[in-house]
Amino acid sequence: MSYGPREVLKGLDFEVRRGEVVALLGPNGAGKTTTIEILEGFRKPSDGEVRVLGESPLTADEAWRSRVGVVLQSWRDHGRWQVRELLEQFGSYYAPYATPDHPRPYDTDELLDRVGLTAQASAKVKSLSGGQRRRLDVAIGIVGRPEMLFLDEPTVGFDPVARRDFHALVRRLSDLEDTTILLTTHDLNEAEKLADRILILNHGRIVADGSAASLAEQISGTTEVRWTHHGEAHVHTTADGTDFVRDLLARHPDGITDLEVRRSTLEDTYLAMVARHEQSDEPREVVA
Ligand SMILES: Nc1ncnc2c1ncn2[C@@H]1O[C@H](COP(=O)(O)OP(=O)(O)OP(=O)(O)O)[C@@H](O)[C@H]1O
């Protein structure tokens, strides 16, 4: 994908399986939104092939669109509508595409409850707080009970309770409704909690692809062990924390204190990956 002469996505190639929750991570400007917009059919790629639910998003019809849910990074309109009214209006567009095994749209009361907007059902959209507005964006994204859901930074502005509720909602959509979900986020904890698989994008290339645990093992591959012995603090980084601790305890039978074993987090992995690929713009081996 190029914007004018500038190539912003370079040889991007990935597949997402049905029911998978995939988090697209990467620094500002890495190309996450561009990727999502191409998959949604809102942006025409300069080259290459894209299939979503078996069809090209650019030429797919409304029946295809009824199976896809979208939460954009931001939008600003519909301020005078009431929350319930707006959801019912959007929901009505999906009704013609309902089937006996896939009723659409979502029941409005159930949806309001799921996104935590029951108390705001009669409020005007313009009177909602930023976080409530974002919840409404999520509700609009899922009102048609999509099979494929795109979420671009869905939890920006969420308070901790809203965030926890949103995570439960995503798990529910994935586990109970088999919804395939592709989301972008800058919250690495969120990615670690939600995603079956993580794609890290940097300068328009995929630089890592795998579960949070497998990426942590393969990229940093380290466990940090801290302890105190005779009042002196020590720290050691090792590939195998269990073996190291076993030896450590055997070597110091008189006892060590303050033992702490910390495995690499997704944040360590992410920072290591991005730093590694920050040096050059050339393609490198993808860690998978
Ligand atoms: N409409 C546009 N015209 C020209 N360049 C654009 C356009 N949209 C995005 N870009 C450029 O493409 C690159 C990728 O942008 P994109 O918005 O996809 O990144 P992102 O990973 O989603 O970033 P963020 O985390 O900040 O949302 C950036 O360098 C950006 O400046």
TrEMBL record:
It holds the Pfam family ABC_tran. Signal peptide: none annotated. CDD domains: ABC_DR_subfamily_A (cd03230). GO terms for biological process: response to antibiotic. It is found in: Cell membrane. InterPro entries: AAA+_ATPase (IPR003593), ABC_transporter-like_ATP-bd (IPR003439), ABC_transporter-like_CS (IPR017871), ABC_transporter_ATP-binding (IPR050763), P-loop_NTPase (IPR027417). It comes from the Bacteria. Its main location: membrane. Coiled coil: none annotated. GO terms for molecular function: ATP binding; ATP hydrolysis activity. It is a peripheral membrane protein. SUPFAM superfamilies: P-loop containing nucleoside triphosphate hydrolases. Residues 1-228 form the ABC transporter domain. Transmembrane segments: none annotated. Keywords: Antibiotic resistance, ATP-binding, Nucleotide-binding, Transport. One of its GO terms (cellular component) is plasma membrane. PANTHER family: ABC TRANSPORTER ATP-BINDING PROTEIN (PTHR42711:SF17). This is ABC transporter ATP-binding protein. It comes from Aeromicrobium phoceense.
